[in-house]
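G., the chain you wanted modeled:
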Amino acid sequence: MKATEKWLKNLHADSDYDAHHALIEGLERFNAENETASLSRMKSLMKLEEAGLPLQSRIVEQYVRNQAAFRLARQALWRESWVFWSMLAEAWLCMLKQAYRNPDSVELKPFAAEIASRAVRYAGRVMRWDYHQARNPAASAWRRVHKIYRLIERDGFSTGMVQIGGQSTHCAREYTLIVLMGLVHPLGYRAREIESIARLLEDYEPLPLPDTVPQRDVHTHLVDLSLSEGAAALESEWVQGRRLRYFALGPLVEHLKSLDETAAEVGNGLTRQIASLIERGGIRRGRQRTNRFGRVWVAAGMDRILGALSQSDPSKGGPVLEPWMLRDESPEGMGFALTETNALPHGRLVAVSWDPSEAVWQLLAIRWNREEDGQHLVGTQRLSRHPKRVEVYYEADVPDVTREPTWAVFLPMTHTEQGVSNLLLPQSHYHLGAPLMLRDGDVVYRLRLGEVQEGHEGWLRVSMDVVGREQFAAAA
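Predicted structure as tokens:
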């Protein structure tokens, strides 16, 4: 830390831009050192942050002011700002990872709220700077902020107050601001307008924070922490889930509609535009369902699903299938209208096919059901368009696991926004971090099991990493 203070004290430059650029180079060196995180190293990073934030503020002011007249300067200033936010986001994320994963960094754990709030804040700034270039934030950016928030919420630090740049904030607040900016989705807005929108959201109190339990008369929007995307307006998705968080944005919308827009920076109906975008769930249209009617065949429950996925020759007989009437469909799922319904708990898995003789199935999970005009309406979320039955087993040298091979269902990733492929396996065969063998035809994959995404009646949907692959004959 003393070396950092000395370096900052001797940091001379002819302009804010030169000083800012030198500070970015310092942050790049800090990240490249790859040293074990420690309390002293965290304090050094805070010194760099403390020196950089006032400079960054002035660079942003120049960037916003120069939009109309100086195209080349505008691009250079945008890049300076983007790199600064990126370097800070990377530094604090690495600090957070080591605080949790490295036993030598145990002294950092009490500062989890400090570190995580900064990691989320600066990741959000990088996403906002993407909007300045009319770019959507990457799916990986949404995954990053979801994971950080989930981790800190789990450990009870999400509302621990911290000071950043002389302002009080906490991780849940910074996460909410990212979600709100995602709902506004300001592609095509001018730089001045994007920064004005950010200030309006930051100045609103009390900022609505994410809740785990939905309330019909209170909550208006939903975010799924297991997806690589932001929030959306609630439709009929009143279901509680381990990765679902709810927001009550009604008061914020009314506040934005009531603002006096005489000030130049929020003129031309900007606040009402923001309110409208938030109210209807952002620009995104992917969640809207299109009416699509017809009969499909459904295998409900894991026993029938495994039977359906194993049928290479349907003429030999197959699992018991039920005819369901399709009501609507979206990229994320299907809605059904049934004349009668048995027990269909939320989370129940179903495999759906238009023609079972073709052996083409989709795997879905039931998310809601309700009665309407004498019909039983069921809503499902699509988990995979191409589920595959596979055999899984543990090798003999893996301790404390069941030795019996069993069937599982591989859910390959088909949409880049969903992030990673998952595996459905019996609860008895799940051990976090354990190496599991997966056989698909003549190929054997070595997997490392990750976190549980969701439980489905004795079956678990888990993330995984593929660490090796070989032909079955060689493996044997």
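The CA atoms of residues 298 and 322 lie 5 Å apart.

Shout if anything looks off.
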